Amino acid sequence: MAENGLGRSSPPGGESLLFLTDDQLRRGIEAMFFAYRGFTADPDRILAEHSYGRAHHRALHFVHRSPGTTVNNLLNILGVTKQSLNRVLRTLIEDGLVSSKVGVKDRRERHLYLTEAGKELEKVLSEAQRKRMRAAYREAGPEAVAGFRKVLLEIMDPEMRKHFDQLKDGM
Amino acid sequence: MAENGLGRSSPPGGESLLFLTDDQLRRGIEAMFFAYRGFTADPDRILAEHSYGRAHHRALHFVHRSPGTTVNNLLNILGVTKQSLNRVLRTLIEDGLVSSKVGVKDRRERHLYLTEAGKELEKVLSEAQRKRMRAAYREAGPEAVAGFRKVLLEIMDPEMRKHFDQLKDGM
DNA sequence: TTGGAAAGTCAACAAGGCTGACATAAACTT
DNA sequence: AAGTTTATGTCAGCCTTGTTGACTTTCCAA
Questions:
Q1: Which of A3, A25, A129, A139 to probe the B interface (max B CBs under 10 A)?
Q2: Euclidean distance between CA atoms A94 and B122, whole angstroms
Q3: What integer pLDDT is reported at residue B15 of this predicted model?
Q4: Phi, psi of B107 (to 5 degrees)
Q5: Within 10 Å of residue A81's Cβ, how many Cβ atoms?
Q6: Among A1, A65, B41, B129, whose CB has the most other CB atoms within 10 angstroms?
Q7: From the CB of residue A89, how many other CB atoms can be counted at a distance below 10 Å?
C-alpha cells in the first residue's frame, strides 16, 4: 500500500478513511487557523475604530443574544475570569452601550441589557461578520455548510457544546 | 411566507436558501467561536506546562511545516509584527527548540529549523490537537469534513488563502 | 444570628499584540 | 564607489485581555 506522504502507511480500511490521515488532519488544523483570522478580521477593524477589542465584541454578542443575562452566566459562556469580563463590561457600561440592573429576586445579581447605542454597534459588528459568512456559505453551498456545522459541533468541548445548545433554545 | 424568527421574512427562493438566513449565519458564527476554543484547548494546556503560549505553538507549527523558512516568510504567514514574532522566536532559540542559520545565498536571511527538542514538543502539541480533530472528523464523517474544509477556505482572506495553498505544495 | 457561599468589584501582574526609532549587515542600483 | 533598499534584530513603551488575590455586599442555611 502506498505511503501517504508522512512516512506512515495508510490506515487499515483503505480509501474510505483517507480523510483521517495525519496529513488531512494537519491541513484541517491549518485551515481552521487561517479561517479564524478571516472570521474575526472585519469586526476587528470596526472595533479598532471604537478603541474596543474582541472581548467587547463577545460581550456585546452574548448580551444581545440573551438579554437580561447575569454576569455569572456570561462568565460561563465566555470562559474567562470574572475580573477579566468585569473590566470589559465596565467600559461598555460607562460608554452607555450596556446597562446593568440589580436583580429583583437576588440583589447580588446584575442583569445585562444592550442600550440603543449598544444594539447599534452590535448590529454593525454582526452584519460585517455575517456578510463574510454569507458569502462563504453561498460559495460552498448548503451541503458543505451542513458538514461545516457538524464538524464544528464535534470539535467543541462538551461544556461549550452545552452552552451552544442552550443558546439555541432562546432563538 | 413564514417569518424566520428575526422579524424578517425569508429570502426569495424559498427553502433552498434557508441556510443563508441571519439566524443560520449567527449560529454558524457562534459555532465557530465555541469550536475554536475547543480547537486550542489541548495545546494550550500543554503549552502552559512549559510556560509557553499560543504564539510559541504557531511558530513551532509553521517552522516544522516549512523547515528552513525565513523570518520574513513566517511573518507573512503569522500576520504579526517582527517585534512580536522576534520575542517568541528568541525564547524558542534560547531554549534550544529552534535553530537559526544564516542564509547561504543571501546572508541577511535567517533560516529556521526545529531542533530535536523542538520537534519533540511540536509533536506532542500537534498530536494533542490532531487527536481532537480526528475524533471530530470520525464522528462527522467524510462528507461533512469535505464541507467543513470547503467553508473554511471561503472564510479566509484571499491573502491567507494564498499562504494556505502554498503550504500545500510543500507537503 | 451568624457563618459560609455567591456575585461582583478593585488592584496588580503577565503574555502577547502594537508602534516608533534605530542598528547592522548584505544586497542591489546608479 | 556611493547611496538605497532589504532582512533582521533590538530597545522602549503602550494597549488589550488574560491571570490571581483580596475585598464588599448579599443571600441563605444551620
A1: A25
A2: 44
A3: 57
A4: -75, 0
A5: 10
A6: B129
A7: 22
Among residues A93, A103, A26, A138, which one has the least CA distance to residue B28?
A: A138
Q: From the CB of residue B156, how many other CB atoms can be counted at a distance below 10 Å?
A: 24
Are B170 and B65 in contact by the 8 Å Cβ rule? The answer is yes
Protein residue closest to C10, using CA and C1':
A83
Cell 460581550, residue located = A59
Task: For Cα atoms A81, B56, B125, give the angle at the middle one, nearest 5 degrees.
Answer: 85
Closest Cα in chain A, distance from residue B99 (Å): 23
Contacts of A153 (CB under 8 A, 6+ apart): A161, A164, B31, B35, B140
DSSP labels, chain B:
--B-SSSSBPPTTGGGGGGGSHHHHHHHHHHHHHHHHHHHHHHHHHHHHTT--HHHHHHHHHHHHSTTEEHHHHHHHHT--HHHHHHHHHHHHHTTSEEEEE-SS-TT-EEEEE-HHHHHHHHHHHHHHHHHHHHHHHHH-HHHHHHHHHHHHHHS-HHHHHHHHHHHHT-
Q: Which tens digit of pLDDT belongs to each residue from B70-122? A: 999 999 999 999 999 999 999 999 999 999 999 999 999 999 999 999 999 99
A42-87 pLDDT, tens digit per residue, is 999 999 999 999 999 999 999 999 999 999 999 999 999 999 999 9
Residue type, B166: Q
CA at B148, C1' at D13: how many angstroms apart? 42
- Cell numbers of B153, please? 477556505
User: What is the CA angle B124-A55-A155, rounded to 5?
Assistant: 40
Kindly list the residues from chain B whose CB atom is less than 8 angstroms away from the CB atom of residue A23. Answer: 171
Look-up of cell digits 506522504: A5
Place of cell 433552498: B16
A32 residue type, one letter: M
